[in-house]
Amino acid sequence: MDLTTIAVSLDVKKELDKLKGNKSYNEVILNLLETSVLSIEAAIEEITESELKRLRDTTSHLHERMENISVKDVKR
Description:
By secondary structure, the protein is mainly alpha-helical. The chain contains two helices and no strands. The longest helix is centred in the middle third of the chain and has 51 residues. It is rod-shaped and about 80 Å long.
């Protein structure tokens, strides 16, 4: 198994110590990473939904403007 060493600030170490209990630092960090990944996935999904809504709204607005331009051309 490959080992990786990471350096953390004393503040981060204190927070890890609070979470650690009888677990190893590796377990605590892996748990944090797993929950962070889920949060990141949820954030990406939320951003994607938000972006899709914005694109739909923009498309709808453009269609309305195109219809208005067409109506003006017909009236001429």
